[in-house]
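TA notes, week 10

Several of you asked for a full example with nothing omitted. So below is the full record: C-alpha cells for the whole chain, then the designed sequence directly under it. When grading your own attempts, check the secondary structure regions first.
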C-alpha cells in the first residue's frame, strides 16, 4: 500500500513548487491580468479556465510554478493535479484544502502489475493539526479499495480473518473466530449460507474487541460475502462478474474500525464480520428451505441470492446481545438501492431520528453524502411467510432496498440506535482521485459521526 505519510508533510518553508489556485468565478479576470506571453503559454497547454484545468509556467531561473482552477471547496480540488504533475514537492499559494484528494489522486492498485516508478508528489500543508487525520482517512479509503479490488481467489473468508487479526495486532485488540460446529449451532444462518464452499473457504464469524471495558460500547457490522454466485438461484455471468466486491461491507467496517482505533476514540469497539462464500455444491442451501436464526426466528429462504441479509441477521443479533449504545452496519446489499440512487449515493436506513440526522449532517460536513430512505412499516407485511416467521426476499421485487432493511431491523433489539448503509463499494467510472474500481462510500460520514458522539 502507498505510504500517504510520505506524500503530505508539514510546511516548514522547504523548497517547493508553488500551486496558485484560481477561483472558478475569477479565471476571466485573472487571465486578463496576465501578460500576452503568459496567456500564450496557457493557451498552448490547453488552459481554458475550466474547473480542474492546470498549466505549468516558468519562474526565475530553472524554477517553475503551477496555476490551476479550483473545483470548489471539496476534498477533490487537488486530486487531478497530484496525478498529472511531475514528481516533486509542492505547496498551495494562498488558500489550502484538498489534501485528501491530493493523496488519493496518487492511489494505484498494483498488486498484480508493476508499480509506477515515476516518483512521489509531495504536498506541504499548513494544516499540521489535521494532517494525521487526513493521512488516516486516505489510508482507510485505500484499504477499502485494495480489499474490494482484490479478486476472490486472494480474498476469501480466511483473508478477511487475517485482515482483522492484523488490525487487532496493530492496535491491541482481541479477535475471536467462530467456525465449524460452533458456527452451525450458534449462528445457523451464517453457516447455512457458507457451508457449500470449499473447506479452505469455510464460513466464519469474525469478532474483534478493542478499548476500555468501561467505555461506551459501539458495534460495527460488515457483510463479508467474499464471492456471490447467487447460490442455487444462480446469477448470470454478467451479474457475477463484480461479485468479488460483495465483501465491500466488511471492507468498510474494517476501515472504520482502523480509524476509530488509530484516533483512540473513547469507546469499547465490537467489530463483527460474518465471512462466507455463497457457493454452489451438493449441500448448498436451497430455495424453500426454512432456516433458524440465532435470534430464534425462522426464515423461509425464498431466494438464495438474498444471502447477505441472512448472515447480517445473525451478526446483528450477536451485536445486540452486548447492548451497545450504537450499531452501524455496512453492506453491498441490494441492486434496488443502485436503481434508486445510483452508485455514488448510499441509502441510509434508521428509525432513530437523532442518529439519522447526525449521520446525514456528517455526510454533508465531510463531502461524503448519504440519502435517507424510509423504514416504511407498511411494507413490513411483505416479509410474511406461509410456513415460517418471515421470508428473506418478498415476491415482486417492490421496494427491495427497504424490505431488505426491514428484514435486518427485526434482528436489532428495540431501543438500540441502529443505522444500515447499503453501499455499492464500486466506482463504475473514474473521477479525479477516484479511479474506477473498489471505493469507500459513507466511510468519512460514519467516522465524522463517531468523532462527534465520542470525542477523544
Amino acid at each position: 500500500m502507498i505510504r500517504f505519510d510520505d506524500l503530505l508533510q508539514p510546511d516548514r518553508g522547504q523548497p517547493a513548487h508553488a500551486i496558485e489556485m484560481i477561483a472558478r468565478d475569477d479565471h476571466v479576470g485573472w487571465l486578463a491580468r496576465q501578460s500576452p506571453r503568459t496567456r500564450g503559454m496557457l493557451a498552448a497547454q490547453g488552459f481554458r479556465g475550466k474547473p480542474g484545468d492546470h498549466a505549468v509556467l516558468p519562474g526565475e531561473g530553472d524554477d517553475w510554478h503551477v496555476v490551476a482552477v479550483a473545483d470548489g471547496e471539496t476534498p477533490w480540488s487537488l486530486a487531478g493535479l497530484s496525478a498529472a504533475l511531475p514528481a516533486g514537492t509542492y505547496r498551495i499559494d494562498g488558500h489550502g484544502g484538498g489534501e485528501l484528494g491530493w493523496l488519493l489522486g496518487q492511489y494505484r492498485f498494483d498488486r498484480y502489475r508493476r508499480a509506477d516508478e515515476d516518483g512521489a508528489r509531495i504536498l506541504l500543508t499548513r494544516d499540521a493539526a489535521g494532517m494525521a487525520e487526513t493521512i488516516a482517512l486516505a489510508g482507510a479509503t485505500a484499504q477499502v479499495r485494495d480489499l474490494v479490488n482484490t479478486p476472490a481467489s486472494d480474498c476469501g473468508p480466511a483473508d478477511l480473518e487475517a485482515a482483522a487479526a492484523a488490525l487487532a495486532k496493530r492496535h491491541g485488540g482481541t479477535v475471536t473466530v467462530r467456525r465449524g460446529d460452533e458456527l452451525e449451532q450458534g449462528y445457523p444462518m451464517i453457516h447455512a449460507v457458507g457451508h457449500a464452499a470449499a473447506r479452505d473457504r469455510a464460513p466464519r464469524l469474525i469478532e474483534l474487541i478493542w478499548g476500555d471495558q468501561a467505555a461506551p460500547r459501539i458495534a460495527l457490522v460488515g457483510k463479508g460475502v467474499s464471492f456471490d454466485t447467487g447460490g442455487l438461484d444462480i446469477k448470470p455471468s454478467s451479474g457475477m462478474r463484480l461479485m468479488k466486491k460483495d465483501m465491500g461491507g466488511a471492507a468498510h467496517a474494517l476501515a472504520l474500525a482502523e480509524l476509530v482505533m488509530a484516533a483512540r476514540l473513547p469507546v469499547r469497539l465490537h467489530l463483527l464480520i460474518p465471512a462466507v462464500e455463497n457457493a454452489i455444491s451438493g449441500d448448498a442451501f436451497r430455495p424453500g428451505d426454512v432456516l433458524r436464526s440465532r435470534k430464534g426466528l425462522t426464515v423461509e429462504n425464498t431466494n438464495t441470492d438474498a444471502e447477505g441479509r441472512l448472515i447480517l441477521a445473525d451478526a446483528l443479533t450477536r451485536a445486540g446481545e452486548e447492548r451497545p449504545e450504537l450499531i452501524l452496519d455496512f453492506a453491498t446489499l441490494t441492486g434496488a438501492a443502485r436503481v434508486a440512487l445510483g452508485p455514488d449515493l448510499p441509502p441510509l436506513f434508521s428509525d432513530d431520528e437523532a442518529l439519522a440526522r447526525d449521520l446525514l449532517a456528517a455526510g454533508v460536513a465531510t463531502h461524503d453524502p448519504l440519502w435517507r430512505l424510509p423504514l416504511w412499516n407498511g411494507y413490513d407485511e411483505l416479509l410474511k411467510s406461509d410456513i415460517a416467521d418471515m421470508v428473506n426476499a418478498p415476491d415482486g421485487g417492490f421496494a427491495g432496498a427497504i424490505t431488505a432493511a426491514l428484514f435486518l431491523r427485526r434482528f436489532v433489539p428495540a431501543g438500540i440506535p441502529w443505522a444500515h448503509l447499503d453501499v455499492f463499494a464500486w466506482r463504475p467510472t473514474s473521477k479525479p482521485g477516484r479511479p474506477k474500481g473498489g471505493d469507500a462510500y459513507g466511510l468519512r460520514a460514519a467516522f465524522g459521526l463517531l468523532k462527534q458522539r465520542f470525542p477523544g
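The chain has two domains: 4-126, 137-453. Use that as a sanity check on your answer.
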